[in-house]
Design brief:
The chain is of the alpha+beta class. Helices cover 37% and strands 17% of the residues.
C-alpha cells in the first residue's frame, strides 16, 4: 500500500521511546530515537569551519553530545541540554554505551553510522541491555 502525504508526515509524531535500566545510576532513563533533522543537526554541530570551508570534525565527547539529545521524560520531552554533554561524558562508558545502544536501535542506525558517531572508534557493543 502506497502512503499518502498525511500518512508520511504523521509518522514524524511516532518517534519510538524505550526505558533503559541503568543500575549504575540507581534507576532507569527514557530515551528516544533520532529524527533525520536531529541527526543532521548533530552532524552539523561536529563540523569545524575556517570561514566557509570545513576543515575538520570535532570528535570530542561526540557520543555524549548525541546522547543528551535523546534522553527524555515519560512524555518524550527532552530533559537534558546540550550544555549537559560534558557532565554526561564523565559517566562510565558502560552507562553511556547502554544509552547509546538503545538510541541507535530505536533510530535504526547502521553500524557504519554508529562508528561515525563515535569518532570512528567502533560501534557500540551489541546485545540487549534494555527493555521496552
Amino acid at each position: 500500500m502506497a502512503l499518502d502525504r498525511s500518512a508520511i508526515l504523521a509518522a514524524a509524531q511516532n518517534v519510538k521511546t524505550r526505558e533503559v535500566d541503568v543500575p549504575e545510576l540507581g534507576g532507569s532513563v527514557f530515551v528516544r530515537g533520532l529524527s533525520s533533522k536531529e541527526w543532521d543537526a548533530h552532524q552539523a554541530s561536529t563540523r569545524i569551519y575556517d570561514g566557509l570551508e570545513q576543515v575538520g570534525i570535532d570528535e570530542g565527547n561526540i557520543t555524549a553530545r548525541l546522547m543528551v539529545r535523546c534522553i527524555v521524560d515519560e512524555d518524550g520531552k527532552r530533559i537534558l541540554e546540550d550544555s549537559d554533554a560534558p557532565a554526561f561524558g564523565d559517566l562510565p562508558i558502560a552507562v553511556v554505551n547502554k544509552v547509546a545502544e538503545a538510541v541507535f536501535d530505536l533510530s535504526g542506525m547502521t553500524e557504519k553510522a554508529q562508528a561515525e558517531t563515535e569518532g570512528n572508534s567502533g560501534a557500540a557493543p551489541s546485545g540487549e541491555t534494555s527493555s521496552e
